[in-house]
Fold these 2 entries.
Entry 1:
Amino acid sequence: SAVISQKPSRDICQRGTSLTIQCQVDSQVTMMFWYRQQPGQSLTLIATANQGSEATYESGFVIDKFPISRPNLTFSTLTVSNMSPEDSSIYLCSVVLGGLETQYFGPGTRLLVL
Amino acid sequence: TQLLEQSPQFLSIQEGENLTVYCNSSSVFSSLQWYRQEPGEGPVLLVTVVTGGEVKKLKRLTFQFGDARKDSSLHITAAQPGDTGLYLCAGGDGNKLVFGAGTILRVKS
């Protein structure tokens, strides 16, 4: 398995500001993903973070709103830009080890936008 | 886009009871995974099934993958309060996972 950490674990932000979430993995991984989750609900994939190239975004998510960096094989950041209360959610990163069948998640970042 | 329908959405049972959660699709998946998530934490992988008809057991949890690899079930025997959480199924769809809507399980002592 992999040990995945996220920073911050939670934050309360004002609308119009931006927050950058960090995801650190204890081993080199090829694939990393960013998800959004409303409490008690399922996960929605935001994008795939590709090392050395631009992230691949899912329908409904755009780079201007959720810019992603992937400078190396153990680290990625997701920025939530120009936040509104609708962005209040849990943001999770995940990594793939040994194939898509094995995906591990970070503990999540709980964001509240006022 | 492949879709996974998960049922029931919510389940509240007494300690010691049995339960089954279902995950169904009209599409074939290369693999299917089950996760459990507790409040304040990320989802934790319970099991991955890849072969049609496969059955895997994890203590009191039994996971089954349908013969056609379109559906799966999770059966919990003699549920305990520690089983409380959000259960998610996820199917392999090319280079990403498709998640079901989730089942919130509450086991009362």
Note: The first strand of chain B starts at residue 5 and ends at 7.
Entry 2:
Amino acid sequence: NAGVTQTPKFQVLKTGQSMTLQCAQDMNHEYMSWYRQDPGMGLRLIHYSVGAGITDQGEVPNGYNVSRSTTEDFPLRLLSAAPSQTSVYFCASSYEPATNEKLFFGSGTQLSVL
Amino acid sequence: EDKVVQSPLSLVVHEGDTVTLNCSYEVTNFRSLLWYKQEKKAPTFLFMLTSSGIEKKSGRLSSILDKKELSSILNITATQTGDSAIYLCAHSGSARQLTFGSGTQLTVLP
């Protein structure tokens, strides 16, 4: 049971670089999302998708792009990395697209931007 | 703007103790209140409480929703070192977004 798979687990970037965080799920979930977790601030929603071809912004979308070409994959792109994007990123999916409750989380990506 | 506040921020107890974690919320449209446990990395789902299900129990863990007081508690009895984790509370509103609190860091000492 793979569940939600994120790659890479760790990444160090220089300011201005771009990169893509990968997320894949094998549970046929329609709903997928990206969160960032910062100390003392809990999890904040970046972008989400309720199905292939459909994406929407969350609470903190600036500086990030997403696409959803298949049900399984939901990559997160950092366009021009900034130190403020240093964080732990989680991808999550749910089989309840109407409510996105009962999320299944990936193991996270620790990103440092220098 | 929806808001979820958890207390305490951190808690240190000894094995066998009982703990109560608190979660209060300010939301425009209540749908459900969720609890997650985060150990080393990925949060894992514990409970979901709704208007039709205000109390849930699983082994030594239980949770109650108080819609009048806009709050929820998570109780853990006979704590074990394996209960050490960050416990996250989240609200699911009408905007298909979960709003998370900042979490309570629980440390259980042997």
Note: Chain A touches chain B through 27 residues (CB under 8 Å).
